[in-house]
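Q: Please design a sequence for this.
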């Protein structure tokens, strides 16, 4: 079927919320495949980190 695309895993992330301040989350995110952990200060920053990591994965596959 033309509409179906091959499923590609882009990454596995473990998110640990350590506290909630100023109406957002702070914590750490671990990218399992790379064994890389980074801290984030907001939910938006967390999403940008994950988005950037998945884009990096897509670029490597091309």
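A: Design:
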């Amino acid at each position: 079927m033309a509409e179906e695309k091959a499923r590609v895993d882009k990454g596995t992330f473990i998110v640990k919320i350590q506290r909630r301040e100023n109406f957002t989350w702070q914590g750490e995110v671990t990218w399992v495949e790379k064994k890389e952990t980074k801290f984030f200060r907001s939910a938006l920053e967390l999403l940008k980190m994950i988005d950037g990591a998945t884009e990096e994965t897509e670029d490597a596959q091309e």
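Q: Thanks. Anything notable?
A: The chain has one helix and three strands. The longest strand covers residues 13-21.
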